[in-house]
Design brief:
Helices cover 40% and strands 20% of the residues. The chain starts with a helix and ends in a 22-residue tail after the last helix. The mean pLDDT is 89. The longest helix is centred in the middle third of the chain and has 23 residues. It contains ten helices and seven strands. Helix 2 packs across helix 5 and helix 7 crosses helix 8. The chain is an alpha+beta fold. It has a single domain, classed as Lambda Exonuclease, Chain A.
Length: 265
C-alpha cells in the first residue's frame, strides 16, 4: 500500500482558496487605516521646513505666506502614499539602528534650527566616519529610481536641497545622502561637498526665504506664480485658502530650482 506522502506527490491535493466566507471590502478597510489620521487640519507654520521647500508648493512664496498666517491644510495623500510614508519612517529607524550597532552613529533625529530666516527641521544622522563628523540624510526609493541614482551618481534635487540647507545651518562642508532600495535593501551612498555653485545656490535660497518672510511681516501678499489648474496648485494643501485670499500685492518669483547638471557627485 502506498503511503500518504507518495499519494500526495503523485496527485497533489487541491488547496485552492474557496469562498467559505466573504472578505469583500477588507482591503479597502485596511487602506482606510493608512489615512485615518490624515484629514484636513488647521495649522500655522512658524518656520520654513527644508523637507517641504524644494517640492512643488514649497517653492511658492504665496504658500509660505498663507502657511505663516495659518489655515486648513488639506492632506491629499491616498492609502498608497500613507503606507509609503510609514514604510519610510520604519526604514529610517532600522537603518539608524544598524548604524548604532556598527559603532558609527553619533547622533540621530536631532533638531536643526535657524532664526534668520526661520527654519526648523530634523536631521537624520551624524556619523563618525574615519575620524570625521559626517552629516547624513536617509532616503528610501523604489528600484527604478534607485538604479537611476546609482547609475548616474545624481541625488534627487529635493533631497540635495534639504541637505544643503542643513549643511549651511550646521556649517558642514561634507555630508552624505544615504539611499536604500525598497525592493532589496541595497544601500547607495552619495557624498556631497560644498562647492562654489552649492554655496551660491543655498545663499540665494536663504535670501529668498528672508524676502518671503518679510513680505508676511509687512502684510504684502505675494501674487500667484502658477495657474490655478497647474499640477503644483492642485496638489497644494492650501489650494482652497489660496483661492479665497485675493490677487496679491507683490511679485515674488518661485524659488529657483537647483541645476541637476551642476549637482553631480
Amino acid at each position: 500500500m502506498k503511503n500518504l506522502l507518495t499519494q500526495v506527490m503523485e496527485k497533489p491535493v487541491d488547496l485552492k482558496v474557496t469562498d467559505a466566507f466573504s472578505t469583500e471590502g477588507l482591503i479597502e478597510a485596511i487602506q482606510k487605516g493608512y489615512i485615518a489620521n490624515r484629514g484636513p487640519r488647521h495649522q500655522q507654520k512658524k518656520s520654513f521646513a527644508p523637507s517641504t521647500i524644494a517640492y512643488g508648493h514649497g517653492e511658492c512664496a504665496r504658500y509660505w505666506y498663507l502657511a505663516f498666517d495659518g489655515g486648513t491644510f488639506e492632506d491629499n495623500a491616498d492609502a498608497f502614499a500613507g503606507a509609503n510614508m510609514t514604510n519610510g519612517t520604519l526604514s529610517h529607524n532600522r537603518i539608524q539602528a544598524a548604524m548604532a550597532d556598527a559603532g558609527i552613529l553619533k547622533e540621530a533625529e536631532f533638531k536643526i534650527i535657524s532664526n534668520d530666516p526661520p527654519i526648523f527641521g530634523y536631521g537624520d544622522v551624524i556619523l563618525d566616519w574615519e575620524g570625521e563628523e559626517l552629516l547624513g540624510e536617509i532616503k528610501t526609493m523604489m528600484n527604478e529610481g534607485f538604479e537611476y541614482r546609482k547609475n548616474n551618481r545624481k541625488p534627487k534635487p529635493g533631497h540635495l536641497i534639504q541637505l544643503l540647507i542643513y549643511m549651511k545651518i550646521l556649517q558642514k562642508r561634507k555630508a552624505v545622502l544615504i539611499y536604500e532600495n525598497k525592493n532589496n535593501h541595497e544601500l547607495l551612498i552619495l557624498p556631497v561637498e560644498i562647492n562654489d555653485y552649492y554655496k551660491q545656490w543655498v545663499n540665494n535660497a536663504f535670501d529668498w526665504m528672508r524676502s518671503v518672510r518679510q513680505a508676511w511681516v509687512d502684510r504684502t501678499l505675494p501674487e500667484k506664480n502658477y495657474r490655478s489648474n497647474s499640477k503644483i496648485c492642485k496638489s497644494c494643501p492650501l489650494a482652497k485658502t489660496c483661492a479665497d485670499a485675493g490677487k496679491g500685492d507683490v511679485v515674488i518669483n518661485r524659488l529657483e530650482p537647483i541645476d541637476e547638471k551642476l549637482s553631480m557627485v
